[in-house]
Design brief:
By secondary structure, this protein is an all-alpha fold. It folds into 2 domains: 66 residues, Tetracycline Repressor, domain 2 (Orthogonal Bundle), CATH 1.10.357; 144 residues, Orthogonal Bundle (Tetracycline Repressor, domain 2). The longest helix is centred in the N-terminal third of the chain and has 23 residues. It is globular. Pfam families: TetR_C_29 (PF17938), TetR_N (PF00440).
Amino acid sequence: MALDSKQRKPKQETGATRAQDPEGTRRNILEIASKEFALNGLSGARIDEIAARTRFSKRMIYYYFGDKEGLYLHALENAYRQVREGEAQLDIEGLSPVAALTRLVEFTFDHHHRHEEFIRMVMIENIHHGQYLEQSKAIRELNVTAIDHIARIYSHGVEEGVFRPGLDPVELHWQISALCFFNVSNRATFSMIFGRDFGSPAQLERLKRNTVEMLLRFVAKDGAPAE
């Protein structure tokens, strides 16, 4: 529910705020907008509500992002950028292929758990058949780096004789994403149907270990993950 006019904080002057911290302005708007889009979808999200929850006016939001669809696209790009930047920061240089893949899968699992709005926005974009993602060169470029990252780990494993040859890095990325994505997207329904809290710390840790083991067994040359 939107705050009424008496509850809303006064908006800062547009020109002054842009001059002081334009990147901070964009980040704050995108953070709030992502939550609104994740909760209500593109059609249900309201710029009035986003403005009410930020320090900035509707006019400033339009100044930076053009319109609601422009804001949605930037929020979607930002969501993908966060996960790809997190992958890039993983300290896997010098690790064995098995350890590197383990760390990548664990990161993906933990990131999706901590950023449920990312999962919801991806689900919403699939409802729109990827039509807004298709407009974004930035997202395509970001995801090229993700495939390059996993391809290097996989190639290293094949060279060392611990991963079986002939696998497609894009399909490996699909499988990692699918297991980690489902953990968030279907948690509520699985918990309700089977009477088990799939969001409890113990259950999440078990699911993460199982996800890692499934991926390692799939890529392993002999069907069993190396020690």
